[in-house]
Amino acid sequence: MSFNRAFSTAANAVAHAAGMPVTFLACCVVVVLWAVSGPIFGFSDTWQLIINTGTTIITFLMVFLIQNTQNRDGAAIQAKLDELIRAGHAENTFIGIEHLTEEEVAEFRERCENAAREHGVVVEVEEKKRKTSSGGKKLAAKKSAAGSARNKSSSGKSKAGAA
Question: How far is CA 157 from the centre of its chain?
Answer without folding.
Answer: 47
